[in-house]
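Continued from yesterday's entry.
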Amino acid sequence: MHTKSLFFIYAIGCLFFCITITIIIIPLTYKTTTMAAPMNQTFYISHGSPTLSIDDSLPARGFLKTFQQKVLPEKPKAILIISGHWETSEPAVNAVSGLSETIHDFYGFPEEMYRLRYPAPGSPELAHKVKQLLHKSGFGSVGVDKKRGLDHGAWVPLMLMYPEADIPVCQLSVQTHRDAAHHYRLGKALAPLKDQGVLILGSGAATHNLRKIDRRGGGSVVAWAHEFDSWIGKALAEGRYEDVNDYEAKAPHAKVAHPEPDHFYPLHVAMGAAGENTRGELVHHSWSYGTLSYASYRFTEKR
């Protein structure tokens, strides 16, 4: 066979190989690398005082700064955060196009805290999915706020957990005139988002009575706070979600620990989104001011 013929056959073979790679293998690789991994767990974070944003003496700050390394190495595709600092009459989500505004909704704190920014991208797409899922589960009215940014219940923990601010964030409100079971049902409705790589994150405080805190910063944990915090931790560890939904009747000192439920209801959303046969695992525990618990939980399958 002539040399030119052999070269022609070789060239045709190489061309066919390149076309095969381009048409079949490269698209498959692209699809694999861009497909979000499911989130098999949800979280409730106690963000406590706004000074968590600057105070390195708070153990919870160190916990959140190592969250990616020690707790959840998988990077979420997006984050749905439920903050106790956004109250509405009916469920509502923000749907910000572009970067989210950082809302400094606190007063009388060090000036440097008001200069902090967390410019995470908003996610109208996730907001739309949240609204669809809630409608599908029977929640008739769901508000969409296209301007509201992230309050400190959202951006303070997120700036420590994901300081790059490169993950789209959508925030969901709480309804303090409704009960814990209502928020648990919200979570159950939103559970499918986990399969799409969305991290569902409740943000509040395991105990939250600002009138009872010891601003002198000394001493041991007071009895009522310890007893409530311990009861909740044990109930979650045992997966007794019905008891946690009925915490006002069953938990000791419930109305002292939470005179208002705004900082506790995000836990119920995260708990509901975890799904059946799950439990709450304590991933961090510390105290400040003798009454403010920074207990934080991961909801994951029972072992």
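--- second protein ---
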Amino acid sequence: MANRLTQIATRTGDDGSTGLGDGSRVPKDHLRIHAMGEVDELNSHLGVLLCEPLPDEVRELLVTIQHELFNLGGELSIPGYELLKADAVLRLDEALAEYNARLPRLQEFILPGGSRSAALAHVARTVARRAERAVVTLGAHETVRPEPRQYLNRLSDLLFVLARVLNRANLDGLGGDDVYWHSERLQRG
């Protein structure tokens, strides 16, 4: 891997460029930098979620995901480098199956809300989708392995499921169930 940061205020980006992990420089609005920024924002949202009361197993899973997202960002920062492993996608698939099996089937669409932790998981879910779109866009212009895209796709699904889990955990006393969408059209029918 390339050099680690030893200082933050380098002033090398004052010209509107930034360095990649391989030492090359690109404009700060480059598609690769955009994708890296979306992944970084997602990881930051998970950091906020981790400040909430959470079931221990969910906390442990989210911490692992943060490390994997850092690997994903590292991979994006070095064109052609592989850092996020395929077993990371498999771990998300397994977590999805495990948590989905504990939940009742959805009968209606649900709204982002309920407990604060569930609402924060929904925010992270939407940022995961945005990060996925940024990686797809980058992949249309440069070579990107499928694992980063697959990981973000699975992660957004998992965050939806975890929001439902967190509402049922009700650790802040404000949740208890999903918040269901009620359409005027459904009420008339």
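The longest helix spans residues 116-141. Residues 73 and 86 are 15 Å apart (CA to CA). Will compare against the first tomorrow.
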